[in-house]
Amino acid sequence: MTPFYNHKQYQLIAKAIQLLEQNASSFGADQPQIEPKLDTLAKHLHTSSYHLQRTFTEWAGISPKQFFHCLQKDHARKLIASGKSILQTSTELGLTSGSKLHHLMLKFEALTPGEIKTQGLNLTFTIGQAVSPFGQVFICLTDKGVNSLEFETDELTYGSWANALAGLYPKATFVESHKKAESIIAQVFRPAAQPPFDVCLHLRGTPFQLQVWQALMHLPLGHLASYQQIAAHIGKPSASRAVGSAIAKNPIAFLVPCHRVIQATGELGQYRWQSERKKALHLWEQGQTSASVNVA
Question: Which residues are catalytic?
């Protein structure tokens, strides 16, 4: 299956994010309160304005000007301010305008205590890697669904990821299939305008972690929530720190959207798969939301 994106597009976006944050004042020196000029950014990225604009539009579904606005830190604050009851009303929003929500139909199932205790005995895991709009991604599947999905980082390679899985399930059978991984990843990151498909998750975690991860799956595409909001949603308003710990251990990137959780101040915060990738995910989802609105 041929993906609709390429790795070089994400590399360019990631570099743009880094440059914008490191040199925001110099990019807008003549008019500091507006977005940096496309020509200036393109020059720093050693590319043409035309190529930069075309790449942004193809990758994110939004114009470079919209891209710049999304990078502003007050963008996160606006999202929080406009979505006081995001979690509670997501179902209602889905009924009235389903195209504006997450385009994936997620089903959730946990590994049983028996499956965990037997260390994966009689279980078969299919592992592989593929390219995504956000760089290389590793995926592990069971017959019940996605068990792990992680982005490659400087610290996390395909080999170290696979070894960690083998350590969790020492008695399981592992089968490698990059072709299968490519097929699933192409569906996971398909544009919101394309028909949805069913994705099942097969998670391993404590009851509290599972509760937090399930709450994250109710966050609509393009919306953010704070750790405190997640804690309140699961009925434990004083457990925001524990919520943060559970989110940090989320084994399934993107599908369990921990990237949509930010600090109460509006700061995006850290991301276990690199902060630039978290910002890129927000930008991409804003583009997908805009595309859905235009189609609807």
Answer: 258
DSSP E strand boundaries for the chain: 104-110, 124-132, 135-142, 145-151, 173-176, 197-203, 225-226, 261-262
Torsion of CA 126, 127, 128, 131, to 10 degrees: 100
Q: Print burial letters for 189-214: b (CB count within 10 Å at least 16), e (below 16).
A: bbbbeeeeeebbbbbbbeeebbbbbb
Tokens 């979505």 -> residue:
83
Contact 226, 262 (CB under 8 A): yes
Can you read off the two tokens belonging to residue 293? 């609105």
Tokens of 65: 């000007």
Tens digit of pLDDT at every position of the chain (296 positions): 444 556 677 788 888 877 776 665 455 444 444 456 778 888 888 888 888 888 877 776 666 666 666 555 444 455 445 554 444 434 333 323 333 333 344 677 888 888 888 898 989 999 999 999 899 999 999 998 999 999 999 999 999 999 999 999 999 999 999 999 999 998 888 766 565 667 889 999 888 999 899 889 888 777 788 898 899 888 898 999 999 999 999 999 999 999 999 887 777 888 999 988 998 888 888 777 665 444 44
Sign of CA dihedral 139, 180, 14, 17: negative
Looking only at the bridges linking them, the beta strands covering 225-226 and 124-132 are unpaired
CB of 59 closer than 8 Å to CB of 284: yes
